[in-house]
Amino acid sequence: MEPVREFVIGISGESGEGVVLAGEILTIAAARMNIHSSSFRTFPAEARGGPSVVRLRLCRDHVYSLGDAYDVLIAFNEEAYQLHGPALGRHGVLVVDGDPEKPMSTRYPELADRTVYHIPMDRIARKDVGEPKTKNMVALGATSALFGFSREILERLLAEKFTKRGEKMMRDNLNAFMAGYDYADSQIEKQDPFEVEALEGDGFFVLAGNEAVALGALYAGCRFFAGYPITPASEIMEVLAAELPKVGGAMVQAEDEIASMGMVLGGGFAGVRSMTATSGPGLSLMAELIGLGSMAEIPCVIANVQRGGPSTGLPTKTEQADLTLAIAASHGDAPHVVLAATTIRDCFEIMEEAFEIAERYQIPVIVLTDQALGFRRADLPKSLLRERTGRALPPAPPDIVDKARYLRYQLTQDGVSPRSVPGQPGLAHVVTGLEHNEEGKPAYDPKTRRLMMEKRQRKLEGIARDYGSVLRYGDPEPEIGVIGWGSTGGPIREAVQMACDSGIKAAGLVPRLLYPSPNHLIRPFIESCKKIVVIEGNLTGQYAAFLRSQFPGFDPKQVNLYDGLPVQRGDVLRAIQEVAK
Amino acid sequence: MEPVREFVIGISGESGEGVVLAGEILTIAAARMNIHSSSFRTFPAEARGGPSVVRLRLCRDHVYSLGDAYDVLIAFNEEAYQLHGPALGRHGVLVVDGDPEKPMSTRYPELADRTVYHIPMDRIARKDVGEPKTKNMVALGATSALFGFSREILERLLAEKFTKRGEKMMRDNLNAFMAGYDYADSQIEKQDPFEVEALEGDGFFVLAGNEAVALGALYAGCRFFAGYPITPASEIMEVLAAELPKVGGAMVQAEDEIASMGMVLGGGFAGVRSMTATSGPGLSLMAELIGLGSMAEIPCVIANVQRGGPSTGLPTKTEQADLTLAIAASHGDAPHVVLAATTIRDCFEIMEEAFEIAERYQIPVIVLTDQALGFRRADLPKSLLRERTGRALPPAPPDIVDKARYLRYQLTQDGVSPRSVPGQPGLAHVVTGLEHNEEGKPAYDPKTRRLMMEKRQRKLEGIARDYGSVLRYGDPEPEIGVIGWGSTGGPIREAVQMACDSGIKAAGLVPRLLYPSPNHLIRPFIESCKKIVVIEGNLTGQYAAFLRSQFPGFDPKQVNLYDGLPVQRGDVLRAIQEVAK
Amino acid sequence: MNPTAPAQASTAERKPSDYRSGRKPVWCPGCGDYGVLNSVFSALAEVRIDPDRLVVVSGIGCSSRMPGFIKAYGFHGAHGRAVPVAVGVKAANPSLDVLLVGGDGDAFSIGGGHLPHVARRNMDLTYVVMDNEIYGLTKGQTSPTSQPGTVTKASPYGSSEQPILPVMLLLAYGATFVARGYSSRPKELAVMVERGIRHKGFSFIHVLSPCLTFNKPVNFDYFDSKVLPLPEDHKPDDLFGAMKLASDPDKLYLGVHYEVDRPSFTERLYPGGVRPDPEPAIDTEALIRRYS
Amino acid sequence: MNPTAPAQASTAERKPSDYRSGRKPVWCPGCGDYGVLNSVFSALAEVRIDPDRLVVVSGIGCSSRMPGFIKAYGFHGAHGRAVPVAVGVKAANPSLDVLLVGGDGDAFSIGGGHLPHVARRNMDLTYVVMDNEIYGLTKGQTSPTSQPGTVTKASPYGSSEQPILPVMLLLAYGATFVARGYSSRPKELAVMVERGIRHKGFSFIHVLSPCLTFNKPVNFDYFDSKVLPLPEDHKPDDLFGAMKLASDPDKLYLGVHYEVDRPSFTERLYPGGVRPDPEPAIDTEALIRRYS
Ligand SMILES: Cc1ncc(C[n+]2csc(CCOP(=O)(O)OP(=O)(O)O)c2C)c(N)n1
Ligand SMILES: Cc1ncc(C[n+]2csc(CCOP(=O)(O)OP(=O)(O)O)c2C)c(N)n1
Ligand code: SF4
Ligand code: SF4
Ligand SMILES: [Mg+2]
Ligand SMILES: [Mg+2]
Question: Which of C282, C275, C284, C283 is nearest to C93 (CA)?
């Protein structure tokens, strides 16, 4: 049997059973073996318990989505199989807690022609290890043995992981791992083709999207963060809470999101790269102050990790439905910027762009990600960090000969005015959310008003021109185009490839800068496709509506998913096939 | 000389000089004479002083805009003429404080071929009346005499106005009025054609847009108001603060706009028709809770009196730039409704619709007006109030036989579920901003999620169908169509008429329901016109962008005004002529 | 809150279980909020509140899920906005009884700006705040009541901020009833909630209610070591005495710290505290006169 | 605020007029805020604050226009958000001196939720609140400090709510410096502002500053009849003494009611209270280890 090196593992159980930990360890083990991966955990909405599952896709190249069905499902108990079994592929393998004497296939006819390995996880943990809580390590051991994970690497990993948790904890978990490993190794006859293989390299590091946003900000020179906890964005704050003080920066947990946003404006005004992170409800609350940032022209970055809305909605599930608000944010015509990260790596890299735009154009920048990105983990090359210093130069004072004639809001061709920051001598000025003249003094006359509105708006032209990046995949002369944004980018990339492989002339377009819209890059794509699908994770087709407002005559087919689950490459592929019919 | 019965008077001076009071009295005098009017006052942005002007347009029929140039300008001093003189029409008349011996025309050549009446207002007030502060009454008297206002009606009005201010105040002001009247009557030889004439009728009453919104709400059965002061919306709160307690209702001045909105949700949940009123910054702050209202399906009404944005912007000037936010309000897909009042009368009537939609569809309704409507006054027929009782029946308990099976969020065809309110026995339920099942219990499974999202969204179809009202003016087979919304409606109505009169086949369309969009009513108009202009008082063309998103292929010419001044019929006419070229 | 229902409606006897909604609480085993819920049931039964006229309002948080478990009208709203919603319910329809419940983050952090105003208005509401000194629902970040040094993922080096003193704050705000209870003393707590409900105007009950999942150090043992009864000689109308007792962060006195009589919001708003019925008609002619 | 600039930068002598921006205040003639502005000028000169390192932050209101009149970096922000903006400025760059100014509505109504937190953090800021017991800029509606019975267009039957007591609130919040001044005693006020600026951590100065245009009854005569000096024997570290003095709405004591020493925010955040210079490099290898 030819080994299959790329496959998807699901690890499932009750949330108290250590599913997540087992998944994390396996992910890191893969990274150390130079195996690329993409992994995701769902967790229950209430604080206490409920079913939990980790999906781990393993590949020889970097991947952009979570794949489709499970090839291997590890079930910590029968209920977990009942819940996740339907997602097990036609040729999938089940590893389940249980007695080989009482095979599952007798109770579940759909298992009759599938490989099932029964591992008495619970019994081993209880009897052999003497600690029922180590069931997950038994499962981890068995999984490692069955699918080719390096025992050595895993043992080292476990040792590192548990070293701070005390002697007994460490011993029990290692014992459990080994017991599981040995059981599978000795008692189970492998009948499936799924097997990983270590590759050459110095290994990867693995980040979830939220961690990537946080480290991206850190390496983009962000030195001030203010935020308020909210699922699924809190990790960004938590990572920066640990890291910022190490580099002379500061993080403040604010009393609410309005305060966070106010603090970020203060930090930006003070000349320090500043950001906040939140999710839908927080973004709603920040709308007013985003407008102040636009009017007073203060650099700042807001990461919004979308979750199911509206209101409290589906706080632990994903959606792409904050786009309209992100673009509209604030009453009045308040120019600002909306970027959307498409992959985990992009979560890191887009922060550099966000801070650069914010600084250069003195404007608030919203970065959209979502729960599906924020909680998905992927491997990243270590060079990503090593090639950066992560320092941002403090803003230099504007080069002005006659300081008495310094105009903070000078009318310029690109709308960008000279800007000093507190501490720079002789360049003091007052910013205000009132309409103002070039000096910054409140002014309400119609002419000043018109000129200032136009000045601020002009910045968007430069931004669309200089930062208008779109990702394009697939056939250079497509019949069918798919447009999406944010976390849908990865699935689109893979689905377009699959469609092309199946003979459909398909292409994908995924803009990273959503507003101002880089129409000069989108238009050629639209014009080059016979039919276009816009697929997004919301009910009303927010980006499709936006694109229609930009391109008169543009009337794409819309595919909208709004059930709390991420858009998958299968969804995209189906949409392409549908249109291709 | 044929008398001209329809003309525009401007009254101008320093804001301490009683310009506004004089204007108000003249407006009411006209109403008592059964003369229709439209009037507007601008006032300075800072609390203290600055120039002030009242524009009063007088007509034999109801009018929908403020007209164009001044036909008559009353200037309380020379500076006022310098400021407002440029807006005086070619054949305009100037009435100015000053000595006839030192005629203005010697200093201002443009006055050479215009009629100028010099009235020594200041001198009369100071010398003859002995109270310099009565200068405005001297001006009022002279104006009345010169342009045919009824001396009797004005004297009665002044008596009513000053009766509460004490004996001396009353006497001084009446004396000043009479002195001004007598001076003009005896010393000035009338050389202009402008003269009003009393008509038959029982008189009008006069409301500013803000007052009309407040009374409209009151007569729509609103019995609870919560709000936070903000220019230019505070008057709505102030009127209701006075009126609600008289009818057993309540008004609460909240600690901020988030609290206002929360209170309104509480009131709506309690079964009482509830509203708030605010302007841009407040609307931004309310975004989150509007989403809660949408999700929990709570009737509520938010009047947003737009002012110049973004941020604090131009707090005392007008703009139509909160539309995008009003439609987007809240993260997630949060169905709610946006109406825009087009005239003063509409400010009253639209509130009835707003409350009806809110109640019937259990949904938040945003009503957009703006400073230009809020502060403009117009005559209204007394029957408008007399034909209404202003009572709203309390919501009846849903007609449910088996109360145990009452489902607050029952899935229905039109998306509207049975709704009980606290106090109704056996029908208790819990509403939540979390996604929930039919019973109202939090539920996150994909199927429930999909069904509930669709249910809430379905309400919009019914609303667009049942409440989709658009105003249409002008040629039935137009070459040129003008689309606008809100306060632009009046100017469009008049400009279209003027264009038609000049031989241009023009028509206007002014939707009152902006979201959900009554596309079935808009489409025929769009299709019937050769060319279309969308004119609005904002920079980015917010409604034009929205319409483009609704009608693929729709690519109108956009005319945008964003200098803080209201869109005038002259602006609309110019736009039509431009396109007609 | 000064309940209106018993006066107007049934005075039928009620059992605590009458107020169970039948939905199973979603809290972790051992969570302090179970005890609070039981005390609330008992208090409601004791006052014989009519469940059909009761509205339970909350924000967002573990503790804010409580309305779902009570048989009554309920409003599980937005984070930090329980107070305004409750004010709206009561101001719009004063014949309803309104109970407010929620957590320390909801009440003192994002919702903290509403507290001075609901207190000074003496709104006829009872507010039960379940204080676990942590954000439970979001998996453990410091709240305004967290002790200095609290280590969470968002305060990995230990929080350095001085916690607020809830009882002190409410006293300073002019609340007319301020008490502190403890979820592991459910009977005592029930009596406090009952007294709060019977109190005219705004009553505030600060309840120690540990989160065993995300704030392990602040558990029942911890609270047990800090609670003590109010001194015998403390008079409930002694504001400064109450403030002194509230100022010691290491002594958590249990009981009704403060109670005074002051006209309540609905009393001042509506003659007799109830909306006139039938509703007076609009005086249309007076309005026309005013504007013409 | 504990000024950093003099220590680091110039100690040149300064005149109050050095801080005039040259913009003419837009206030009504006779507005109390003129006096406050002059006191601020004097205090800044006295401490020799470097105008280039000073940031004056405000919200929205008549009083909040003040930054425009001061020669310094200024941030005239959004209604109620002066505190968060100032916190951001100071936390991000602790070597700046940050002065907060604004009105009673801005500070206690829409912005009231930020106060407990800036106080308990002991943020190195000085906050001067100009209290005219009214919303001036929006032409006269009641504020949280308005007296019961205040008639405005929005309270035509007289407001019925009990006003907050600003000094009491800040004491309850744990502010480390709380004072009250009066705009018609500019010298006394200047000294208070100066002391507030020199104070380490958060200092709060409640200033009586009448609005003659929209709150005519609360004019200079009114305040003159209510102000009095702090009792001679009042000790500035006597919290309960200060609270007692703060609790009498009819006696408006002038002076520094409370002053204690507690580590300030930037002291706790940054070693030595200043950002390290040069900035420590990111330890990339440690980060890679953490995530692999
Ligand atoms: C506007 C907004 N910000 C943040 C959140 C996330 N959030 C939900 S509950 C919560 C705090 C809960 O703490 P607490 O009120 O103390 O309740 P507990 O869970 O401890 O009972 C937060 C921050 C939210 N739902 N909405
Ligand atoms: C979000 C928001 N709500 C309301 C307003 C309107 N507003 C401006 S200033 C102000 C109150 C001013 O009162 P105060 O802070 O006491 O300052 P004062 O004018 O009395 O000095 C209000 C309500 C606003 N600008 N923004
Ligand atoms: S997380 Fe804490 S507060 Fe929430 S239910 Fe569990 S124990 Fe209770
Ligand atoms: S309105 Fe009042 S507060 Fe505002 S400037 Fe005038 S006097 Fe001062
Ligand atoms: Mg808590
Ligand atoms: Mg004030």
Answer: C275
